[in-house]
Amino acid sequence: MPTSENPLRPDEAHALFSPEVDLHELGILANAQKQKISGQNVYYSVNVHLNPTNVCRFRCPLCAFSCDAKDAKAYRLINSEIFALVENAVHSGCSELHWVGGIPDNVPYSWYAATLKEIHRRFPELSIKAWTAVEILHFAQTTCRTVADILSELKSFGLAALPGGGAEIFAPEIRKRIAPDKPNAEAWLDVHRTAHELGIPTNATMLFGHLELVRHRIDHLLRLRELQEESIRENRPARFETFVPLVFHPQGTAFSDRKMIPAHEILRTIAIGRLFLHNFSHIKAYWVTLGVELAQIALGYGADDFDGTIQRERIHHDAGSQVPFGLSEQRIRELIEETGAIAVRR
Known about the structure:
TIM Barrel, four-stranded parallel β-sheet, alpha/beta, 14 helices, three-stranded parallel β-sheet
């Protein structure tokens, strides 16, 4: 099994992507690595997604969610709608808020900060995971403040963690085609480095199944592993908690003519991610992009986190995801237990 003393090398990972390597045997290896860390446990949360607007200044070719302010599908939730959404979620048992969305030009950082502060004041029991590194960089740039200053303030207002979105694929030759105006890999990684230094745990994503090649996936995983190792070595008070492999859905994007990546390649990528990221505690089977049945299968290929109830998610549904708009906690537990695992609410 890969360890910090003997990590899986990039060339070894590349070899594992070969169809000549039996997928079932690869899954057995990844599952053994998972069980060393989590045993039979599979984790989930009771969470709600808040996507306040789909208006975004970046308009990335890979994104089916974002639009211009004058588009017919453009929307923006007002504060009363946001507070009502959160209140309903808390009253129904949610313990986590996942807040990401478009980045419009005309919404100041002060609104985000004040809204976070008010949500935390009203619902102090709610764990708030909010804003990708791309959004944090936007806040810093528009206020002429440092990322550390912004993150420190948001933490004091109730921010508990950062999600992992905006990473896409780090390789610049691919990134400039799928998300040309987003900050580069170094900037994304530096936001997460700073968050770890400040005691804010984060997640990490990789969007795959679009234009990238196997070597781009391995490069992406390597950069994540190196930053995690750095945070461990420097004894930072936080680090990456979970790696989230996100399957690209082409519908409604500039790449709508591309076919969905096949299930066997998705499972292979998840299994290799588990083996390569030996210093990550958790690998997520994000059922919104995988589909519910494939997410269950992924629990046998190295994943140990089923995400959660995911009420009101819009971003991946806009790209063609056919899964429900949320699952009940009981259904989540049933899906996990059907695989022989132990469902553990986090």
